[in-house]
Here is the input.
Amino acid sequence: MIAAGVTGETALAAALLIPLVGAALILLCGSRPNLRETMGIATAALLLAVVALLVQDVLAGARPRLVVVDMLPNLPLAFAAEPLGATFALVASGLWLVTAVYSIGYMRAHHEGHQTRFYAFFAVSLAAAMGVAFAGNVMTLFVFYEALTLSTYPLVTHHGTPEAKRAGRVYFGILIGTSIGLQLPAIAAIYMLAGTLDFTAGGILAGKAGPEATAILFALFIFGIAKAALMPFHRWLPAAMVAPTPVSALLHAVAVVKAGVFAVLKVTVYVFGVDLLRTTPGTGWLIYVAGFTILAASTVALFQDNLKRRLAYSTISQLSYVVIGAAVLNSLSLQGASLQIATHAVAKITLFFAAGAILVAAHKTRVSELDGIGRRMPWTMGAFAVASLSMIGLPPTGGFVAKWYLLQGAVATEQAVVLAVLVASTLLNAAYFLPIVYAAFFRPLPAGSPEHGEAPLASVGALTLTAGLSVFLFFRPDLPLVLAQAFVASGMP
Here is the structure.
């Protein structure tokens, strides 16, 4: 029992249905913007409340499960709450509420068209994200993974320009192509080998597949989950930056990309199993692919003058922290990977919020245009500075906590390559973030710069809140850390 009169199964159903009902209400209120936006905020707040109840239940040791329908023998469309899913759901629902507030200031100030459609698809996307977070087996995860791609496509192509349409084709082509061409065959093969696709402590493949088959299936899964943005299947993410900033902020700093690395973690721990992967030749390559992605994407980010593209390549790099944490196959590294989902989301959404605020208030999109902007937008650039410290992994921010656990995992397993990657990427992160902060506060404004102040209060308030959360997660990482520890404990037999 989660609360008086509410069962875990009811809460799971509510988490899936609330965003869909909210989308319908947003469409019905489309001609009345104030009411439409109120519906969006109310829906986000209600979803967060339900997810908080589920998190409380998971922390108490419960694992509520909801079976909807049997798709095949021993293969239902099923949902379950467990620690890693609770982390993802809490991050996505919590930051949706903040983004709903931010979007009011951004969408109105930027005079974006088709706002009703935008808010409605946003809500549908969160329903898909909840389906991913609470998927009870691999097939349910796949169904909602695909639903997330389909529901975010209209958001990526929102502007309807030739550039947006080209970006949409790249986005759709890579994500659908890899999931159907690589991930789906692996799912079918595992179902035939194991007779089940349920997420199970210790995995479901031990004793069911030989070393060669295990290695091949693992590779198909990892590259078939292109939302994790491992190279070479990463191009969809920078292409999607043509979308409005709220889309970039939540869906491409939180929901879509986190669905990818979340799926990698779930499959690694609950399908293949840590023990099986440790003893199977031909699976250790993931450390090197993730390490290359971290360093290569950071290097590319260093040379991007467009602010959102720099942030996009930073995201590609930071996502692979989660993947490399999974690949190390150590309890500390897995905890660090789980923490990275939360700490990166809070910091990266702040950076995208700041980029959108700069666009709205100063009409600037390039790093080279930001000299002195901190004097006119101190709240925005102060929040940007805090989030940059978290990306680098420096105290007093949550990014330090996640990186510390990843480093401990690498030391415990004597993974010199992982240590070198983490140190090198820290230096690269500093190299492409700190010059922006320095230029904003310590360089003079260019002569003749037009007068402007901060972006609308709704936007500035949202980015200030998320920057504050980054600092809070340094001093009080209790909730994500307890969930991370419970995830590791439940994933290992």
The chain has a mean pLDDT of 91. The first helix runs from residue 8 to 28.
